Amino acid sequence: MCQWDRTLTNLPLSYRNCNCSETLQLLDDALGLFHENKDIFIDLGIRNNFNLPKLHATRHYSYMIMMLGTTDNFNTEYTEQLHINYAKDAYHATNHKDEFAQMTQWLERKEKVLCHDKYVNWQLAGDVESEPHHSHPPDMTFRHLQTMPKHPTAKAVSIDKLVEDYGATYFREALARYITQLSHAEDPIPLHDQALEVLAHDIHFPFRTLPVFHKINSDTVLVNLDANTEAISAGIEVLVPSHLAYVEWFSPFPLAPD
Fold this sequence. Notes:
By secondary structure, this protein is mostly helical. Helix content is about 45%, strand content about 5%. It has ten helices and four strands, in the order αααααααβαααβββ.
């Protein structure tokens, strides 16, 4: 019972909105513990087998999280849809006697009709000189696009709380510098660091709270700044389309290894 309690406790790690190597290892350990003890349900006659698509998918959770990011906003609905297309619809087309052979034949005929329909449409298009198009699997290039939710998680978070609880230590200073830079973006002479700091010190915010989005992946990246080392400053900010993101810079790598 203790092992099963540990398994059920660690399984929710798979849908956390933030994971690390330690939590992924806990997830793998929990799944391994489950597979080691699942046969008890077969021995007690509760189940005959565990040939379930959703259960099989759990073996790939850790790898897919590392490759594609966290699983928040994802679900297993695609297996339910496949069950409708390949099982329920096929079963309704049979006479409910010896249904497996009839379902297989129904699916095979449906695929042939679909392929023939595509071929007919290709011929009607008049492109008879070239060969029919054969789809190729996509390349393995990973393109990650961060999608923002429509509404913030917290609509009014005080700036003090952003500093103390969210770890945005230099949020006030970074936001003041950002507003100053926008205000003087069209100046013929760019602001120097000292002038920027002086003007930013006179910025007063007409608000005390800000909306905050929680379910956004926080990643560590390597940034190539070339020779522009002056761009590094504590609490530097970047502009993401329609949203302001607070980015914390870590110490740059030394020229020589430690």
